[in-house]
Design a protein that fits this description.
By secondary structure, this protein is α+β, with helices and mostly antiparallel strands. It has helices at about 1-25, 70-75, 90-95, 100-105, 115-125, 150; strands at about 30, 35-40, 45-50, 80, 95, 110-115, 140-145, 175-180, 180-185, 190-195, 200-210, 215-220, 230. It has two domains: about 1-30; about 30-230, no CATH class.
């Protein structure tokens, strides 16, 4: 009788442990390099809560790391870099990728993708306390909304004196940008969407240290911006 009870208890404990492990796994995603990212559910999508830092596409092919500024400016193919070409920024801020890497369709882990302009609008509407999903304000360019930017920013990691509230656990950090030079690290964050605006530009989002709003705009595809991925449904 005791032996049977012990077996049942062991089975229950094993089930509990497995359930907990599965729950933990469902809240993270691993890229092809083995980097593990935390995720959060926002607007019916699982979003990464960290910027991507993969050196390879999900098919195993290598993404060129371009440090030389003159080469970066002339690129019309996939590339990534570290902010200020300093690998020490990578762990917290992730990498900066040009839009050609986004357009490959292979940048995010298998089963994940770079969100569209429309999916960013849904994220913004979920975050903002005044303008909800579907509000026409999200179709505008430039800074818009009410407090979505403040609510998406990480509580720490921004320019001194600036803190976000991170109400949705999105934990946005100021990874800066790159084109003719590196710019705005610690004060602004920029993220590509997968939506093309023209043959030479694409849509992106930015958070600026001094604003509670969030900006939507287009920039040349050669820009280096951060990447967040969402899970395919």
């Amino acid at each position: 009788m005791i032996s049977r009870f012990c077996k049942i208890l062991s089975a229950c404990l094993l089930l509990t442990i497995n359930t907990q492990c599965n729950r933990t796994d469902s809240n993270t995603v691993k890229d092809i390099d083995g980097n593990i990212y935390k995720t959060t559910m926002i607007a019916n999508f699982w979003w990464m809560t960290e910027n991507l830092k993969s050196t390879r596409f999900n098919d195993g092919s290598v993404i060129p790391c371009i440090k030389d500024q003159s080469i970066w400016l002339r690129l019309d193919s996939s590339a990534y870099c570290f902010y200020q070409n300093d690998e020490n920024f990578a762990d917290t801020l992730g990498f900066l990728y040009n839009w050609y890497a986004v357009n490959s369709g292979k940048l995010c882990p298998n089963g994940w993708r770079v969100p569209t302009d429309y999916e960013w609008k849904e994220l913004e509407g979920s975050a903002d306390t005044k303008y909800g999903i579907g509000d026409s304000i999200w179709n505008k360019m430039g800074l818009r909304g009410f407090d979505a930017g403040q609510r998406l920013k990480s509580v720490t990691g921004w320019r001194k004196g600036v803190t976000g509230t991170d109400d949705l656990a999105f934990s946005a950090l100021p990874g800066g940008e790159r084109l003719s030079r590196f710019y705005a690290g610690s004060s602004s964050g920029f993220w590509w969407t997968s939506t093309e605006a023209s043959t030479s530009s694409a849509y992106y989002r930015s958070l600026v240290y001094s604003f509670e709003l969030i900006a939507r705009d287009t920039h040349p595809k050669r820009m280096g911006f951060s990447i967040r991925c969402i899970k395919n449904k």
